């Protein structure tokens, strides 16, 4: 493909579409830019520049003097089957194996893909993932049943696609779920009501957003990281507002917002069942390809074991660091395999399992609903940062082992071609015969110009006569 002539306008549209798709897959902006640079180089356009933000992508092709710029705003969100198809296309584009026009058609097909499962199956999947997570957070039979029912309710509500309703949807579902939990809590032993609420609301928790924001800030992407961090905190605030509003309607006291310790009603193997249910629920609800289920389950098991070991040895606050550090190399290794799964497809469920957003929701609800202040909310933010740090260190270790040490950053500014000066060769190069500007090179003589037919020959005397006088 690099040997063929590629229309720059079509290539720009193709790269914009790839970047927009990776944004819809909730990829970090630094990884999107690195991928797009690799794609541009595979098509012989190393002079392409990219600016990637969470909602805006800018692409410039050719040099500054004759460059063309295209801007695209983003806002879509992909399911797991769309993410898998997208990253297959991205890998082909990195190798330059896709015609840009065909790639645009494939991107449009990915965007219009129908879910692999019917709405009833996807609703059942959401109920399963909520039930599985409840076994890890509030392990009681009654809590398991309540989480399953509320998860099914939210799964049905998520079938409604409306940009206007999406703004108030988190508040609505948080209020409805909290209202049901607070009303039945005095009569049914559901365990900790606040932690139980996390299970059905898990797909609304901005755990991945907060972790990605921290990773982007650590990578120097200040605009993207700060804006994504603010968005995640606003999402948490909306969910906490819905829970507190329901508590106000029911008339619960402030002690109901304080999380309780787990009762230990279930045996230790119930956690394994919870992880399995969570994996099956993700597979069904997000229409993941069948070939990726085993990889997602493997990453979830590694993340949970790492977090459990972290809780036992260093405490629950930074246990997410151990879980993220353990699962990140596994995620990247799976993505590098020929029959593996894209990194985002396995990262997102693992983020939800590590529940950084859940810790933030519990901490923010307790901070606003009680008199304890923001101590628990700060603890929750610490857990989010520990998970992000684990992802960063895990990624660095994997790249170091497989690619060797690389420079962290490069700084270079291209000078316009008209002002570029030829660099003088080093002194040792002048000593070697045959090299430019060598001491051993014969003096270069201009070839004699032959006169045109019928024109008088230019002799030395005539040349001296035609030369201008310097007197």
Automatic annotation (TrEMBL):
Residues 461-471 have a biased composition (Polar residues). The keyword Transmembrane applies. Keywords: Membrane, Transmembrane, Transmembrane helix. GO terms for molecular function: transmembrane transporter activity. The keyword Transmembrane applies. Residues 14-246 form the Threonine/serine exporter-like N-terminal domain. Pfam families: ThrE. The chain crosses the membrane at residues 143-160, 167-190, 196-217, 229-246, 266-286, 293-312, 318-335, 347-365, 377-398. Belongs to the ThrE exporter (TC 2.A.79) family. This is Uncharacterized membrane protein YjjP (DUF1212 family). It comes from Microterricola gilva.
């Amino acid at each position: 493909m690099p040997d063929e002539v590629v229309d720059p306008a079509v290539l720009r549209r193709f790269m914009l579409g790839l970047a927009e798709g990776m944004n819809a897959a909730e990829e970090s902006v630094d990884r999107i830019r690195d991928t797009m640079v690799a794609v541009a180089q595979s098509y012989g356009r190393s002079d392409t520049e990219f600016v990637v933000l969470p909602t805006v992508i800018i692409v410039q092709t050719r040099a500054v003097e004759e460059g063309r710029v295209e801007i695209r705003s983003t806002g879509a969100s992909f399911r797991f089957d769309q993410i898998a198809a997208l990253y297959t296309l991205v890998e082909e584009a990195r190798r330059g194996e896709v015609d840009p026009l065909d790639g645009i058609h494939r991107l449009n097909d990915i965007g219009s893909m129908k879910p692999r499962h019917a709405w009833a199956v996807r609703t059942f999947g959401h109920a399963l993932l909520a039930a599985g997570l409840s076994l890890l957070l509030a392990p009681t039979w009654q809590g398991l049943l309540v989480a399953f029912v509320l998860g099914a309710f939210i799964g049905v509500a998520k079938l409604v696609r409306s940009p206007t309703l999406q703004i108030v949807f988190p508040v609505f579902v948080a209020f409805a779920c909290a209202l049901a939990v607070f009303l039945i809590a005095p009569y049914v032993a559901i365990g900790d009501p606040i932690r139980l609420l996390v299970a059905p609301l898990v797909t609304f928790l901005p755990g991945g957003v907060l972790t990605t924001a921290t990773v982007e800030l650590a990578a120097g992407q200040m605009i993207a990281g700060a804006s994504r961090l603010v968005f995640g905190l606003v999402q948490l605030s909306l969910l906490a507002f819905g829970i507190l509003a329901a508590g106000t309607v029911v008339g619960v006291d402030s002690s109901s917002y304080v999380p309780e310790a787990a009762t230990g009603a279930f045996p230790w193997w119930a956690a394994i069942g919870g992880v399995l249910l969570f994996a099956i629920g993700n597979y069904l609800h997000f229409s993941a390809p069948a070939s990726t289920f085993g990889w997602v389950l493997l990453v979830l098991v590694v993340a949970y074991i790492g977090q459990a070991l972290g809780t036992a040895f260093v405490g629950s606050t930074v246990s997410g660091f151990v879980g993220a550090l353990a699962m990140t190399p596994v995620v990247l290794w799976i993505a590098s395999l020929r029959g593996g799964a894209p990194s985002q497809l396995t990262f997102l469920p693992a983020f939800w399992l590590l529940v950084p957003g859940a810790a933030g929701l519990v901490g923010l609800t307790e901070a606003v609903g009680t008199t304890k202040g923001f101590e628990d909310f700060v603890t929750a933010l610490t857990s989010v940062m520990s998970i992000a740090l684990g992802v960063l260190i895990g990624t660095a270790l994997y790249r170091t082992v497989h690619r060797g040490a690389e420079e962290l950053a490069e700084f270079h500014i291209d000078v316009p071609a008209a002002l570029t000066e030829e660099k003088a060769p080093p002194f040792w190069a002048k000593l070697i015969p045959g090299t430019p500007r060598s001491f051993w090179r014969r003096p270069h003589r201009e070839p004699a110009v032959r006169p045109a037919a019928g024109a008088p020959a230019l002799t030395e005397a005539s040349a001296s006569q035609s030369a201008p006088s310097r007197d």
